[in-house]
């Protein structure tokens, strides 16, 4: 019985050998079957690797994500400031002074009043005025400004167009403010809005015309300077200015904004190296680099002369530096001192939402 079984197994083995070799020979010769086999093995290997990676990711992985902040091109216009500056209408100003005070003043004194009415930290007298007791030396410059300068944008703007459409009322866009640089009309500024999303000058990728067009009224008393800055910033003594002439002029700007993850504000200021507009020390005055510089300049002026040309923390008229303090302001040289102080000390951090603005090709 055992011998019979062994003989049968030997027969089966002898028959399997030629059969298996024949199958291999047929499989190799038939290339379609070969590729199916290769692709099957490859697919199985790929699935096995993916399953292994998924398992390791879920059980033993470290993920680093760049989700705290990101940069992208924005659809919010920068803040535009149109500020009043001195022109060449001295004779008209002299006539206004005569009509207002019912008195004729000497040429030199009237010219001094005219220049001081437009003064800002960058346009102080090159020399102090000489006191003449026969004249009201301590003129109320703020009263002169209120009489001579407009506070409604319609007095300065003839027409305003945004995205090619006429804005019916310029006050929908431009709000009046007294700033460090004098009387200004500001558009898209956080002084007037709780958030950037509420601002009127916004556009989308569907808008082909993304321009703001201004037609300004001519005045014999003053001309205009333009400031273009981030919505939390204000015109200040170290700002770039752009000339506005009677000729048609086009300015093109490239604007990029930083959008922060909502959790960034919870990080320590020392770590993020910037401040949000809400992290201000002056109520109603959003934090910005320019606001920080203005506050420091005002503090320097108060220390040196017990007055200020612009005090963000206290708008009391009694703190304004009138003509009688001009000599002190000139000697103090506050503007240069502030620039040196801020440049050598990390006292004014940038804003965390500051737009990066560069002048493009006109």
From TrEMBL:
Keyword Transmembrane helix in record:
yes
Q: One Pfam family of this protein, by short name?
A: ASC
Output the superkingdom of the source species: Eukaryota
Which organism does this sequence originate in? Drosophila simulans
List the membrane topology term(s): Multi-pass membrane protein
Q: State the Gene Ontology BP annotations.
A: detection of pheromone; inter-male aggressive behavior; male courtship behavior; regulatory ncRNA-mediated post-transcriptional gene silencing
Q: Does the keyword Transmembrane helix apply?
A: yes
- List keywords of the entry alphabetically: Ion channel, Ion transport, Membrane, Sodium, Sodium channel, Sodium transport, Transmembrane, Transmembrane helix, Transport
Q: Which InterPro entries match?
A: ENaC
Bilayer-crossing residues are 34-53
Q: Name one GO molecular function term.
A: ligand-gated sodium channel activity
Q: What does the similarity note say?
A: Belongs to the amiloride-sensitive sodium channel (TC 1.A.6) family.
User: Mind telling me what this protein is named?
Assistant: Uncharacterized protein, isoform B
Q: From the Swiss-Prot or TrEMBL record, state where the protein is found.
A: Membrane
GO CC annotation: plasma membrane
């Amino acid at each position: 019985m055992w011998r019979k079984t062994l003989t049968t197994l030997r027969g089966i083995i002898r028959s399997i050998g030629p059969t298996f070799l024949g199958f291999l020979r047929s499989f190799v010769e038939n290339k379609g079957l070969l590729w199916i086999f290769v692709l099957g093995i490859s697919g199985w290997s790929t699935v096995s690797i993916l399953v292994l990676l998924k398992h390791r990711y879920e059980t033993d992985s470290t993920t680093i994500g760049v989700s705290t902040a990101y940069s992208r091109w924005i659809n919010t216009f920068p803040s535009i400031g149109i500020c009043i500056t001195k022109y060449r209408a001295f004779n008209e100003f002299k006539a206004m002074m005569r009509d207002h005070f019912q008195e004729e003043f000497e040429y030199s004194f009237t010219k001094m009043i005219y220049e001081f009415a437009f003064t800002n930290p960058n346009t102080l007298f090159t020399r102090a005025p000489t006191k003449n007791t026969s004249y009201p030396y301590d003129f109320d410059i703020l009263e002169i400004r209120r009489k001579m300068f407009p506070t409604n944008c319609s007095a300065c703007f003839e027409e305003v167009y945004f995205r090619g459409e006429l804005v019916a009322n310029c006050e929908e866009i431009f709000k009046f403010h007294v700033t460090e640089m004098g009387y200004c009309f500001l558009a898209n500024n956080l002084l007037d809005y709780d958030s950037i999303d509420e601002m009127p000058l916004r556009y989308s990728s569907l808008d082909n015309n993304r321009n703001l067009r201004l037609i300004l009224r001519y005045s014999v008393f003053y001309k205009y300077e333009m400031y273009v800055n981030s919505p939390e910033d204000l015109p200040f003594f170290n700002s770039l200015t752009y000339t506005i002439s009677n000729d048609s002029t086009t300015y093109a700007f490239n604007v990029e904004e930083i959008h922060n993850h909502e959790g960034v504000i919870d990080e320590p200021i020392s770590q993020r190296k910037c401040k949000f507009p809400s992290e201000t020390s002056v109520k109603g005055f959003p934090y910005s680099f320019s606001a920080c510089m203005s506050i420091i300049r005002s503090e320097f002026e108060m220390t040196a002369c017990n007055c200020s040309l612009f005090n963000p923390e206290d708008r009391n008229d009694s703190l304004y530096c009138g003509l009688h303090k001009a000599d002190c302001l000139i000697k103090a040289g506050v503007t240069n001192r502030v620039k040196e102080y801020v440049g050598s000390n990390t006292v004014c951090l940038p804003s965390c939402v500051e737009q990066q603005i560069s002048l493009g090709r006109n």
